[in-house]
């Protein structure tokens, strides 16, 4: 008989998994007398159905959460098996009540203890990057992780391509402010002031944006459509992107439940491999959740429509501030 680990201890590390806009919708619900099994549930009031069309990105992030759970359990010497539910309709989640079971987890026995440093080191960096190319060995390792997950990593380092994509993303950020339903949905997830140790949402320091800038964008979004102000907004945003030498696309199946779960697992493995090599990334989701900009990415890179589901900048930076995480993601019924 192996010694089970309290779910709270596993959760302390697993909660570091990334989720869209740091909404942290996943919870662990222990089951059974010996508490070696747990349901994994999604809280539907933490979805972003207007911005995350069809709930594709939040659904895929369950795969990242599953990897974090398994890695966290291994840190305590326990083999954990996560099983996603057999069928799930991502687009209908919010209609299924406050909780939706998306998988199960079971502590199955002892395992070789693994270090958890990469879970803690992995994070998004919205800081300016150091103006140097990523080591080719690191890029090869990253591409290998993506390929093993059944996807493709397409990296561009031509300065003109990099500059054009960064500018396109800045334009998309401003134009997305004009989408009222999406703007109001994410407004409630923005946080101001000193970043706490515990919390959720998007805080100004990890975002690398001053409070006045965020408040102005939400209060007067039309201002940034005016000549002069728009150029100012683009310039301000591009200041945070200085030093970027690489942009990349991740392409592959990203539509149905099994594909989304697998994509999320691959993305977490990719992120952890970046942490191993000291590389950071910043996803640039504004371009792919907006049909106009998604079509432009398709045109520029001559890929099939809908084939590429993530655009990102990647490189080396100073250690970025950590976004806070909720302290308690275990629910006891």
- The coarse silhouette is globular
Work out the count of structural domains. 2
* Continuous helix count: 11
Strand % is: 15-25%
CATH overall fold name of the largest domain? NADH Oxidase
List the secondary-structure elements in sequence, H or E: HEEHEEHHEHHEEHHHEHEHE
Order of strands across the main sheet: 1-2-4-3
Distance between the termini: 26 Å
CATH architecture identity of the largest domain: 3-Layer(aba) Sandwich
Structural class: alpha+beta
Which spans of ≥5 residues are poorly predicted at pLDDT below 50?
Answer: none
Main sheet characteristics: 4 strands, antiparallel
Radius of gyration: 20 Å
The top level CATH class name of the largest domain: Alpha Beta
Number of strands: 10
Work out the helicity level.
Answer: 25-40%
Mean pLDDT over the full residue set = 95
Quaternary organisation of the protein chains: single chain
Main attributes?
alpha+beta, 2 domains, NADH Oxidase, 38% helix, 333 residues, globular, 18% strand, 4-stranded antiparallel β-sheet, 10 strands
């Amino acid at each position: 008989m192996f010694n089970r680990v309290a779910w709270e201890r596993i959760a302390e590390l697993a909660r570091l998994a990334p989720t869209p806009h740091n909404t942290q919708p996943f919870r662990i619900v222990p089951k059974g007398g010996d508490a070696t099994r747990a349901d994994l549930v999604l809280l539907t009031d933490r979805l972003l159905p207007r911005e995350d069309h069809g709930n594709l990105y939040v659904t895929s992030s369950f795969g990242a959460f599953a990897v974090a759970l398994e890695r966290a359990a291994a840190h305590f010497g326990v083999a954990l098996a996560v099983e996603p539910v057999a069928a799930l309709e991502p687009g209908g989640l919010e209609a299924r009540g406050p909780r939706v079971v998306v998988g199960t987890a079971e502590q199955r026995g002892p395992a070789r203890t693994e270090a958890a440093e990469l879970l803690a080191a992995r994070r998004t960096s919205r800081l300016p990057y150091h103006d140097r190319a990523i080591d080719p060995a690191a890029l090869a390792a990253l591409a290998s992780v993506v390929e093993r997950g059944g996807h493709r990593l397409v990296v561009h380092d031509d300065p003109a391509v990099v500059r054009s994509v960064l500018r396109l993303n800045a334009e998309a950020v401003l134009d997305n402010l004009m989408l009222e339903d999406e703007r109001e949905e994410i407004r409630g997830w923005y946080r101001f002031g000193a970043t706490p140790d515990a919390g959720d949402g998007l805080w100004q320091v990890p975002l690398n944006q001053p409070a006045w800038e965020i408040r102005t964008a939400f209060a007067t979004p039309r201002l940034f459509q005016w000549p002069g102000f728009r150029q100012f907004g683009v310039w301000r945003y591009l200041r945070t992107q200085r030093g970027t030498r690489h942009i990349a696309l991740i392409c592959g199946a990203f539509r149905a439940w099994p594909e989304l779960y697998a994509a999320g697992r691959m993305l977490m493995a990719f992120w952890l491999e970046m942490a191993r090599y000291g590389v950071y990334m910043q996803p640039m989701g504004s371009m792919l959740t907006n049909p106009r900009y998604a079509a432009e990415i398709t045109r520029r890179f001559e890929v099939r429509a809908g084939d590429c589901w993530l655009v990102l900048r990647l490189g080396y930076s100073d250690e970025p501030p950590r976004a806070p995480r909720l302290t308690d993601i275990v629910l006891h019924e």
